[in-house]
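Deliverable D4.2, example record:
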Amino acid sequence: MVGTGATLVTIMDACHSRSAMREGLPPGLTPRFAPGLETAPELRDLLPELAADAAESSGPVPGAQLPGHVALSACEEWEVANERHFPDGWHGVFTEALGHALARLGHDATYRQVFSYARCRVEGRLLRQIPGLEALGDLADREVFGGALRPRAARVALRYLRGQWEVDAGALHGVVAGSRFGVHRSSPLREVHVADVYIQRSVVEPVGWAPEEEQQYDMVLTDVPLPPVAVSVQADPDIALRLAERVQAAGPGGGPSPYIRIVPTTDESALRLGLRVCQGDGTIQVAGLDDRPLASPLPIDDRGIQQTVHDLDHIARWLQVRNLESASPALEEAIQLEFVPALPGRQRPPRDGAPALVKDLNFAYTWTGERWEPPSMFVRLRNTTDRKLFCVLLDLTDRYRMHADLFPGEYVAGHWTAEAGNRAAVTLSLPPDQPVEPGACVTDWLVLLVAEEPFSSAPFALPRLRETHVPSARGGRRGVTGVLDWLGLLAVERDLETAPPVALDWAIKTVEVTTRVPGGPDDPDDVQ
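Output generated by the structure prediction step:
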């Protein structure tokens, strides 16, 4: 079908049907039955016809999914497809489910929507038959037997299965108990509360509304509980007691701190986000669970105890944002971060500049013969979709500062590129108080926030540790739109109870950026 413009749709309602049909299989291949073997055969002796075809470089790769092919299968390769008696006779459960889905959703439904509905119907009857959908690119999001592209609004579906409501996102996607999902762009807001979390799904309970059991709903994450960061104390019992008492009075209105909780040292191995307070010679100090100091030591007096709790609160808020995960992957790859080296004399990035790969990025100072020059990069945000998206780029430094100076908040048009840093090159340098010498190193985490509607980046602002913090204005609650804005305000005033009025899709992507001065003891570079 390649090159013809046509779409091949295969529906396999048979046992072991997933991956059962591919263009490129040798003609005349039929099931073969052989007597049982006492020893395992050599791999080259299995399916010799496929091995011969694979050796022919000019032909298609056997078993490969090709463009233009949508494969709907009744079950996985290791499963069996079931049949039942229906009002119109005996036939496959998957066939009945597809027919029911097409009849209910109509001709303008996409392959993915029809499949999702049919799979829900099959799994509602059979626990050990899981249908499959295979299609390359955006083909699954085209209208059934039509061809018009209709991207999904969200990638998380609410469905009724096995007598309960569930969403098809679980611990693997970052969902935690207590989270809430809302029907995408519903007004008034219709939410569900996550009661139980499994690996790939979560059981939910509707909040104040009754979904229709025959219908599926596109959902987005609207509320992420930010659990307090656990703190263990390795100090004398009286010091631990004083710290615990201060934590219990560090929150709004003199209540407990909303950001940290004291736990026994024996619970450290199970912590996802944890800090430690260590006692020294007349001092106490905040450290990581690996005992790496995170703040300078303080004397063991009332002011030192109070400042230690402030340090814990500050670092915990920073950790909560850096480790925040988005459960809906619809927008995770919509905006691509690109880094283009700024060449001398360049005021604007070259339009054809090859971007650096976005993962753990490492940049180095350059020795000019007289001094160390910090690296400079043009940072670009490329929208890979056809719709405008609102973006904020946060910089989280290893001094526990958090700011949005690089890209405070702006729409990026569909298939358009925006430049961070006010369209100027971004200099990646050490802090002013850190000497520029071989072996010096600093780390930043760039956190990209993407949403369908504008939200404020101001509530995310956090100064360096132990610097004076200018609180965000508290009069902006009426402007809260979307979970990101809500989370930003939550990071400043935990007692905020305002829920987002509209369920908007959003995503977060975090990139670690390291800037170093070559020539340190652990650096393989030989600096002359």
